[in-house]
Design a protein that fits this description.
- Strands 2-5-1-7-6 form a 5-stranded mixed sheet. A two-stranded antiparallel ribbon has the order 3-4.
- It is α+β, with helices and mostly antiparallel strands.
- The chain contains 3 helices and 7 strands; from the N terminus they run E-H-E-E-H-E-E-H-E-E.
- The longest helix is centred in the C-terminal third of the chain and has 10 residues, at about 85-90.
- The chain has one domain: Roll (Hypothetical upf0131 protein ytfp), CATH 3.10.490.
- Strand 6 and strand 7 form a beta hairpin.
Length: about 120
């Protein structure tokens, strides 16, 4: 049996940066580097999923909303995960978010959870 250990980058600007959330989802503290998601602005989303609120300790989570404005940017962390771990994060995020491929200010490609209404193919 072959195990794939391909490293994926997941950009987080919110609760996935919290150690309790990382421990609950991945069983470990994540390694990552500071980066920026350009052309998005940060808004707040009220979370009504009790399990998500319990895990994060927060009733409102940050949400990346595409503006297209080069002056807008969200600071966060690009974490190194396996694809299986990224898929675990999918289960944590509520339906108002979707995972999309983005290009960070560093030029690196990463996954990011953004407003589910986002329709552009390139960030």
């Amino acid at each position: 049996m072959t195990t794939t250990t391909t490293t994926e980058l997941l950009f987080s600007y919110g609760t996935l940066q919290l150690e309790p959330v990382q421990m609950a989802l991945f069983g470990r503290r994540l390694a990552g580097t500071t980066d920026v998601l350009p052309k998005f602005k940060e808004t707040l989303l009220e979370i009504d999923d009790e399990a998500t609120v319990r895990m994060s300790g927060k009733t409102h989570h940050a949400m990346a909303e595409f503006s297209g404005d080069p002056a807008d940017a969200i600071r966060g962390t690009a974490f190194e995960l396996t694809l299986a771990e990224v898929e675990s994060a999918d289960k944590y995020e509520v339906a108002a978010y979707k995972r999309v491929a983005v290009t960070l200010a560093s030029g690196r490609r990463a996954w990011a959870y953004v407003d589910a209404n986002y329709t552009s193919v390139e960030a």
